[in-house]
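Risk register update: the risk of archive-format incompatibility is retired. Evidence:
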Amino acid sequence: MTDAERQALLDALNAEYAAVYAYGVIAAYAAPERTRLVAQHTAAHRARRDATIEALSAAEITVPAPDAAYTTPFPVDDPIPAAELAVTVENDTAVAWRAVVERAETEPLRRLGIDALTESALRQATWQTILGANPPTIAFPGRT
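Archived output:
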């Protein structure tokens, strides 16, 4: 694995760590009818985190531990900011996974990045729809 691939994968893992944490905040404030959706998205990020840890371990790269806590980019105290945080989380993970795709030199790593980027974009579109964004998608997910 090249240094660029390694760094991109480590950045993606850190984005997934932050996403799992943020979904705990989202769960605390999301509208009650979103409970199942939040649980599904949390599970998806946990699975992606675990797959990323496996990929790093297989490449014999030391896997860093998650931070003890993360700071949200804005206060979250009701369902609207919770949904907005979900959009931010999905955008942040899309940015990280797009970097993996851009730096991947092997098909398996590129596939991992494409799958993760696609999943993040779909979750982001779901939250954008909930917030009433029109259109709910963006042309090139993961652009900063």
